[in-house]
Known about the structure:
- The chain contains one helix and five strands.
- The protein is mainly beta.
- A five-stranded antiparallel β-sheet has the order 4-3-2-1-5.
- The two termini are 17 Å apart.
Amino acid sequence: MYEIAKSLLNEYVEIYTYLSLDKLYGELIVATPYEIVLLRKHIEKASNQNYALYIPLSSVIYIKKL
């Protein structure tokens, strides 16, 4: 899974994990053998907010490039 995550760095991806009930979407910005970091960007009228989600690599079921 680490090799797949490394190949998808800086790409917009869909991630499904054991820890989340929903699929997660965002830009994959960091990949280590232990975790990945997904950057989620929310653009709203009032403010722009970005969230970095730190996801254990062992919990990932699949990663798909969109």
